[in-house]
């Protein structure tokens, strides 16, 4: 059996029969040391004679401790010291002082004993008065020191009592797993509010506008961002952000993020965001829209779809052309069409774009890697959107009809091109001639 003889661990390092001991072990073999410390006989070679490094260190440490304890006990016994109450001992000048038990001391016998000791010490010849006073003080406080400590009132510290510090390991025990979504959360009771119907869920309305939020933290972030305008300036990208530390970590130092996706090596700041991202690499779309039947991976994307497509929610208005948008980010990109600002440049060809998304899509042109392959023909594409548009060519379905002549097309961009070339361009030429 190749296991540790003491703790049965599967990785023993040392063989007891081959371990050499030094002179500090009183020339004992390691087998004798184990017998001395643990009362375990290891001489039988049929059983494992190996031990792990951890047990080896513990046995050496315990042997030193036990040897020291036995030597000190033998020394005390040889001195024949009597440590019971009433035992006598010698002072520096060979004066014997009787020590009484503290329970027998009272005010009368303390005074009598002090007078006896004073007479006894006054009869002795001392070299100076200071030496005499020091010895008298020593005897005086010898009797009353313990009594005064018992009668001394306990001083109470002012202020509120300090709360005991929580151990960091307690935070791990407080985390619970949600049975509904499988996420690990600190406060399971508050987290379960998210799985309740909208009518039973607690809401937090904003005091400054009509918006309502699902959590107090979301309301706080909204007030801080929208109404108070509390933002910090990022020196790297010259932007004003609410959380500067998180912005720098996510946008400019993504390699330091703690959670990494195994499939695409992308990193995230929290475990929950990683779990949401992992759904991209699966085909599961459990959340379906009740109005159009389209399916989504998360409830958040379903909610965004409902507000944007079906509710037609557009709260962000352009100050130049009065065009409205669902997201503020879309409005900011649209404003660059008026200002002609293109801050994102391609490193390969030097071309500039108004958004990072268009730059990212443009950068795929310079790469030869085409990971999205068509299952019908041999064509491959750099983006999933290109493949999705290509797959319509293999079907006979034509969903996009022209608003002028009702001619149908496979793709919406083909319909848009037809409407411009066949109808809108001729109308523009006719109006310009008149």
UniProtKB/TrEMBL annotation:
Compartment list: Nucleus
PROSITE patterns: ZAD (PS51915), ZINC_FINGER_C2H2_1 (PS00028), ZINC_FINGER_C2H2_2 (PS50157)
Residues that bind Zn(2+): 4, 7, 52, 55
Span of domain C2H2-type: 204-232, 259-286, 287-315, 316-343, 344-371, 372-399, 400-423
GO cellular component: nucleus
Keyword set, alphabetical order: Metal-binding, Nucleus, Repeat, Zinc, Zinc-finger
InterPro entries on file: Znf_AD, ZnF_C2H2-type_TF, Znf_C2H2_sf, Znf_C2H2_type
One Pfam short name: zf-C2H2
One BP annotation, GO: embryonic morphogenesis
Basic residues bias locations: 155-166
Domain of life of the source: Eukaryota
Primary residence: nucleus
SUPFAM superfamilies the record matches: beta-beta-alpha zinc fingers, Glucocorticoid receptor-like (DNA-binding domain)
Residues covered by the ZAD domain: 2-79
MF (Gene Ontology): zinc ion binding
Region (Disordered): 150-170
Protein name: Uncharacterized protein
Organism: Manduca sexta
